[in-house]
Amino acid sequence: MDSNLSFSNSRETFKIREPDQTKATCPQTRSIGAIGTIGYIALEYGMGRAASTQGDVYSFGILLLEMFTRKKPTNSMFRDNFNLHSYVEMALPDRVLEIVDPLILEQRNNESNRTGQSSSGNSGRLGECLASILRIGVTCSAQLPRERMDIEAVLMELHLIRNVFLGVGL
């Protein structure tokens, strides 16, 4: 049985092939060369490299970008060499508020109105924190594994951003 599955993102074409079943008496187990969800799978997996922590970091970076932009990596707006990573990268640092999920900004404005705080004073800090988070997402989803952040550094940066945003521990 020769069944192949291929897919592509804006950078690479991936081909996943099931191994040939040569004997009818073989156990009916299957394995494939790469496992993951289109858009989230690290690019090096499509080139036959083994799973690694850096591949997980890539997936985390894409997820972070998706959470804050509300754009899936498979969105129809992403074609050719234009993808979620490049979309966010092009907006950093000055146009972050244009690409971030509007619900995040709306929720922040509603919270400011409820507490009677000025939203304009907090919007600068919010924009800086969002830019920092998106920069982490872009770095984590870099094409080359060696250009990605170490997950421990990601955790430390995210904690620092949280503390800056909340104004604690400074």
From TrEMBL:
SUPFAM superfamilies: Protein kinase-like (PK-like) (SSF56112). PROSITE patterns: PROTEIN_KINASE_DOM. InterPro entries: Kinase-like_dom_sf, LRR_receptor-like_kinase, Prot_kinase_dom, Ser-Thr/Tyr_kinase_cat_dom. It holds the Pfam family PK_Tyr_Ser-Thr. One of its GO terms (cellular component) is membrane. GO terms for molecular function: ATP binding; protein kinase activity. Residues 1-166 form the Protein kinase domain. It comes from the Eukaryota. This is Protein kinase domain-containing protein.
